[in-house]
């Protein structure tokens, strides 16, 4: 059985020269990691480390300047971007609703790929996300920020991807909705065996929902450790500073 | 019209230049240049047409139409700066549109198969196609920029390039056809079209002139639709990289 995901020596140059993130002109380099089993991974680090860029590269929505990625043994180089993206479900930080109704958005995957619309699954997801009372005919662009974020997650789950790339998907949710999303994703993981790479600034969330932590700092993937070990005693000084200063972290995040 | 009468038309230009000097608009140079260019271009075209009509050889006809398509493509292509291969794609769409319309005109005997009919009607078809192409490309560029997020969302859900940009294309096709359709609604009420006016001045029966104008107006609508649809099929891929990302 090949590994779920293999990332080898991935590097990305900064978009603009003279970026304060690094003097070398690199956003990150030498990012190497392997996901052997379908795990839930929290991708942590202060802002500007390239966490979102890493997710976008994994989804083939951005390109790496060096390195390689393999998904269940299939190299990303030369892979059909459509098939790849269907297996690497990317949920963006800012949810974009397609012009049309809530149902139109839920049906996107079936429409794009000519597959049958799994109404039952859609209804179940909407219910578990607390959106069961949302009229399916309502224009999706009129939803609140939090509703959009949850609908966007449901829309991507309809793909049933092998790996879920989640970019701060609970950032604009209230506590109750946030917990619903967490519960749904935990159950989804158990039932579907989906691996998840979850960018979050909510350490409580990372601790409760993820089994592993990838910590980005100093322009690379600094730590790759089981979550309990990371939160008990991180290996690097940078990570312990990161864990000690929630206020600073919040500040950088906002 | 005699050359003496024609030279009096310069009075209009002189009046305009005087206004420019008096109001300090600083347009004298441009007006002078525009006057000379218009006069030289039109007189040259007049002599070229006279020659082609007398020669009555299909090679000249093809050459003139090819020139029209070339200039129109280059001109409309300016709207798509930075998009490699845009000019020859416009040229292909214009050529196809021109071919379809001329086949209909000639095949159904709507016009006589002589340069006197083919050249002016080709000029109008290609000219209106050029305007449609410019509008279409300009609008598609703005549209694709505005809804970049939607396009990327669709891509991230595994859409093809065509699926991802389909809505944008639809809106741009619609937008580029609106002026033609609006023009059809008010023609004759607001403005008397140039061709019809010309025919009437030259002594043609107004009703005969109107018949040709109707032909022009209807065929413009058809050419606008053909042009924008052909162009959308030919250029949508330019918005994407080979590995199906949005081109920066």
TrEMBL record, chain A:
Pfam families according to UniProt: ABC_tran
Name of the protein this chain belongs to: ATP-binding cassette domain-containing protein
PROSITE patterns the record matches: ABC_TRANSPORTER_1, ABC_TRANSPORTER_2
Superkingdom as given in the UniProt entry: Bacteria
Domain ABC transporter per the UniProt entry, residue ranges: 5-243
Lineage: Bacteria, Bacillati, Bacillota, Bacilli, Bacillales
Gene Ontology MF: a single term: ATP hydrolysis activity
Record keywords, A-Z: ATP-binding, Nucleotide-binding, Transport
InterPro entries: AAA+_ATPase (IPR003593), ABC_transporter-like_ATP-bd (IPR003439), ABC_transporter-like_CS (IPR017871), P-loop_NTPase (IPR027417)
Automatic annotation (TrEMBL), chain B:
Residues passing through the membrane, by range: 6-22, 34-53, 59-77, 86-111, 117-138, 186-204, 210-239
Membrane topology: Multi-pass membrane protein
Source organism superkingdom: Bacteria
InterPro entries named in the record: UPF0014_fam
Gene Ontology CC: plasma membrane
Keywords: Membrane, Transmembrane, Transmembrane helix
Subcellular location: Membrane
Protein family per UniProt: Belongs to the UPF0014 family.
Protein name from the UniProt record: Iron export ABC transporter permease subunit FetB
